[in-house]
Design brief:
It is flat, with a radius of gyration of 34 Å. By secondary structure, it is α+β, with helices and mostly antiparallel strands. It contains 16 helices and 13 strands. It has helices at about 1-25, 55-60, 95-115, 115-120, 150-155, 160-165, 210-215, 240-260, 295-305, 310-325, 335-350, 350-405, 410-450, 460-465, 470-510, 515-519, and strands at about 30-35, 40-45, 65-70, 75-80, 90, 125-135, 145, 175, 185, 190-195, 265, 270-275, 280-285.
């Protein structure tokens, strides 16, 4: 009950804010709006006398953002309200000419007291730019809104669909759309209405909570479960825009299935799903608004997450890699993938297949661990190169300063520079022919050990593990260290040579000081 009690007041405030926003938006001249699932923002011009000042400024107490700006000639009065603090009121310029010698001091005193309503009442005959930004924290209230169904459709089907989809995560899932028909709709675990009447959203499912938490703990951004959008898109009162939006929600459910079932994910715009099954498959994840049904995808998803047996998920990954070549195959891949996954999973319970899947898990784990170790070693080696280079550069600078100031002789300076140059060559040789090859050897030794699994794994399985993302990242990290260490040490050696030339130039042109005299 505590969770419900904390949600209800937030919903009430949000609906009150939405009603006030609607009433004022229709009165604004030069209206400008920005769409977002979790925020409504409108800005325009209207007379101060027509603004219900106290009600508008009270919105700031609910966490919304309000700004009222009055500009007349050389003076400007601005009021901002946001959060629990009192509204901020600022006045710039001389108001005497506009308000007269009586009202101008009264306005200044109102500003000094922080009396926003009193100050604005004094300029009620003026026009103001009113900006309303009605904010929503879906993690607390679960209410999401837009002014039009078409905007929701555009947000979900854009390349930035991940950001839009993240707005549906909350304890109470209600989507408020201004142009939605008067008849509310329960769509899966999502309640959709026009916001004029609050409706009770359906209970949420926890079938896949542990599965999603595990995926998130491995670095995958949290998005809604596809089960949330398991609903019937047939809606008698639907307009064309609403129908497209419902299609986009179905398309989002379909994409979320592949999002959560993928072996790995490359974050981008849009993200790339990576499936390591019988072969390595990669395909972009994009939402379309022409999806009509998502039953097969949800059946596949529910079966995959119905228990925590890793062999079940491996069977799904294996089946997906056989059914999907590219993004165009996703629409019809779920049904065949489910049938294949069930067959592979049943076979996995027999000794031979179970041994093969166990060997595959062992091989992938060993290679992933070696890749992680190699990446860490490459990172440490890069840090060591930078630390040594900083010390060497500091030493070169110190030698030059000491010699020019007569602390050491020129012969001593040349000797130290020669030592630094020799050390640089040794470090370059060590990095290129000992450190980097050693890191790479440990990685490729683990990859070479995959040949030990030839009796249990097919050649395609071994090739897929060798070409995995972790191996590629580790190999690139080692190669980057090799290139960077070569460039940095060569640059350091060039600095030594330059310092020696600088000493010679200084000597040739009659440098002064004790160091020069002793040479």
């Amino acid at each position: 009950m505590a969770a419900e009690d904390s949600v209800v007041p937030g919903l009430a405030n949000l609906y009150e804010a939405l009603d006030l926003y609607r009433s004022l938006r229709g009165s604004l001249v030069n209206l400008a709006e920005s769409p977002n699932i979790n925020r409504l923002k409108a800005s325009g011009i209207m007379p101060v006398a027509d603004i219900p000042l106290q009600a508008v400024l009270d919105l700031g107490q609910y966490g919304h953002r309000i700004e009222i700006v009055v500009i007349d000639g050389s003076w400007r009065l601005a009021v901002e309200a946001s959060g629990q603090s009192a509204p901020l009121i600022t006045l710039t310029g001389d108001t005497t000419e506009v308000l007269g010698p009586v009202d101008a001091p009264i306005l200044e005193r109102a500003v000094d007291r922080g009396d926003a309503v009193g100050g604005l009442d004094l300029v009620s005959s003026k026009d103001a730019r009113l900006t309303l930004e009605i904010m929503n924290e879906p993690g607390q209230s679960g209410v999401h809104w837009c002014m039009a169904s078409g905007v929701v459709n555009e947000l979900l089907t854009s390349a930035e669909w991940v950001a839009a989809a993240s707005g549906f995560i909350g304890p109470v899932r209600q989507l408020v759309i201004d142009d939605f028909p008067s008849e509310p709709l329960i769509f899966g675990e999502l309640a959709i209405s026009n916001g004029h009447s609050q409706i009770e959203p359906p209970p949420t499912s926890s079938l896949d909570l542990d599965f999603i938490d595990d995926r998130v703990s491995r670095g995958r951004p949290r998005l809604p479960s596809p089960i949330m959008f398991d609903g019937n898109a047939v809606f008698a009162s639907a307009t064309e825009e609403v129908t497209k939006m419902l299609g986009a929600l179905i398309g989002l459910a379909r994409v979320l299935v592949w999002y959560w079932l993928a072996s790995d994910l490359e974050l981008g715009v849009p993200p790339i799903a990576v499936v390591s099954g019988a072969r390595l498959v990669q395909f972009p994840l994009a939402v379309s608004d022409d999806a009509e049904a998502v039953r097969d995808e949800l059946d596949l998803y529910r079966w995959a997450v119905s228990n925590s047996d890793p062999a079940r998920l491996e069977a799904v990954e294996h089946a997906i890699s056989l059914a999907v070549i590219g993004a165009d195959d996703l629409a019809g891949a779920a049904g065949p993938s489910l049938r294949t996954a069930k067959s592979v999973y049943e076979l996995s319970r027999s000794g031979a297949v179970a041994e093969a899947l166990a060997a595959r898990r062992t091989a992938r784990g060993a290679v992933a661990a070696a890749a992680q170790t190699a990446t860490g070693a490459a990172r440490d080696a890069a840090g060591s190169v930078m630390e040594r280079t900083i010390v060497q550069v500091a030493a070169i600078g110190g030698v030059l300063v000491a010699q020019f100031n007569g602390v050491i002789t020129r012969a001593q300076a040349v000797g130290v520079l020669a030592g630094i140059g020799l050390l640089t060559i040794v470090l370059l040789y060590t990095s290129r022919y000992i450190t980097v090859p050693g890191i790479r050897a440990s990685l490729w030794a683990a990859i070479a050990d995959l040949d030990q699994f030839r009796d249990a794994l097919a050649a395609d399985d071994i090739a897929a593990i060798r070409e995995s993302r972790a191996v590629g990242q580790a190999d690139r990290a080692v190669a980057s260290v090799a290139r960077a260490s070569t460039v940095i040490y060569l640059a350091c050696f060039v600095a030594v040579v330059a310092a020696a030339l600088l000493l010679a130039f200084h000597s040739t042109h009659g440098g002064t000081g004790v160091g020069h005299g002793r040479s």
